[in-house]
Design goal:
The protein is an alpha+beta fold and 89 residues long. The chain is 31% helix and 18% strand. The chain has 2 helices and 3 strands, in the order βααββ. It has a 3-stranded antiparallel sheet with strand order 1-2-3. Strand 2 (73-78) and strand 3 form a beta hairpin.
């Protein structure tokens, strides 16, 4: 089973899709939660749980998963047959 989290900009500033994930990555580096060195994909050095914990307040998502910018966060589940199911965040 594979899970995918996409952030998508809802305006021309690209904050949701580019700036916020980059800022979360920088925070995780500062907190010592990224220990890999060099160039690697995000899933190679960032814990999804750590990422979600930090991005929730930045994206306005409360603990029940309700968000004020629902179009900006997309969560998908991909099964072993490649079937993609959109999930509520």
């Amino acid at each position: 089973m594979e899970y995918r989290i996409h952030t998508v900009s809802t305006n021309q500033a690209l904050g949701e899709g580019t700036g916020i994930p980059a800022a979360v990555g920088a925070i995780l580096v500062q907190e010592g939660k990224v220990t890999e060195k060099g160039v690697f994909p995000p899933e190679g050095g960032v814990s999804p749980a750590d990422f979600i914990e930090l991005i929730r307040p930045l994206m306005g998502i409360d603990s029940e998963g309700s968000d004020s910018v629902s179009s900006a966060v997309i969560v998908e589940q991909v099964d072993e047959n490649g079937q993609v199911t959109k999930m509520d965040f």
